[in-house]
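Table S2 (continued). Query chain:
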Amino acid sequence: MEIVKIVAIAIVCALLCTVLKQYKPEYAIVVQLAASVFILLLVVSAMGDLINAVRELVNGSGIDTEYLTLLLKALGVAVLTQLAADACRDSGETALSNKVELAGKVTILLLCLPLVKAMIQLSAGLIKG
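Corresponding output:
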């Protein structure tokens, strides 16, 4: 049960950071980043089964695998962006976290342009009959 490990790591990290912030605030950020990376690695290792299941569904449905690739890339960008923004926000850099979130949104939009183009072409084809 990976979720039990993740929750335990998060609770221990939160308690440790609370104590460290009183004496050595600079170490609290390092501990927080280390725990975040470790949790991310646990989540990524568990995502292999999920990706395989989605791939099987896509292959069985006849949908182009390019769309699955776009979906997974967008998901990766969203997760990384959220992690970076949260780290910035936790260290007191709210303005920087907002910029990271904006960059993530723009990146996802750029990734999805081929999908939007295909949707527009399909819609135009349906309208023309």
